[in-house]
Amino acid sequence: MDVVIGRPVVVRAPCEVGTDDLVADLKARHQHPKLAVWLRMLRSTGVVQRPWSAPPAVTVGREGIGVRSRAAYEASRDRAVTAAQDALARSGLGPGDVDVLITSHTTSWTIPGLDVDLVGRLGLRPDVQRIGLATAACVGGAHGLVHAVRALLGRAVPG
Q1: Which one, of 153, 1, 11, lies nearest residue 90 by Cα?
Q2: Are 28 and 60 in contact (CB under 8 A)?
Q3: How many CA atoms lie within 13 A of 132 on its CB side?
Q4: Strand 49-52 relative to strand 15-18: parallel, antiparallel, unpaired?
Q5: Closest Cα to residue 125, out of 102, 151, 100, 96?
Q6: Has this prediction a pTM greater than 0.90?
Q7: Can you give the pLDDT of all 159 residues of the chain as single tens digits?
Q8: N or C: less crowded end of the chain, CB within 10 Å?
């Protein structure tokens, strides 16, 4: 069985949001006793710009956590579909050639998970091995690589 390892495909969210913008927004909308701690933590990351699916005004303008969470998930899912389709095209593979699908995202919890959603949207085989790491949050990417190595090690090595 062939193993194909290609370059990663990155599809970034379309909006760049600066830390200064987030700090200003939090100061304007919140009067919480721990606000100073939150702002210090936000600034201490060293991150200057963050990719967001929508501008902050659109994101915070969505009513309720369920609506915001659904919008974030759908935007992440759409980027995942694009990235997966691009990866398959670059490698010369089709959806039927995929044996293992590993997903990780931190935007929202949804049931069924991103892995299940992608199987249908990409036209993958129903028996594709799925490893969904939504609960791994930020470390999900690194954890996904560990699972990928484990999946590859479980394959027969060509003689």
Answers
A1: 11
A2: no
A3: 17
A4: antiparallel
A5: 96
A6: no
A7: 567 778 888 999 999 999 999 999 899 988 999 999 999 999 999 999 999 999 988 988 888 888 988 898 899 899 999 999 999 999 999 999 999 999 887 666 677 888 999 999 999 999 999 998 877 777 888 888 888 888 888 764 444
A8: C
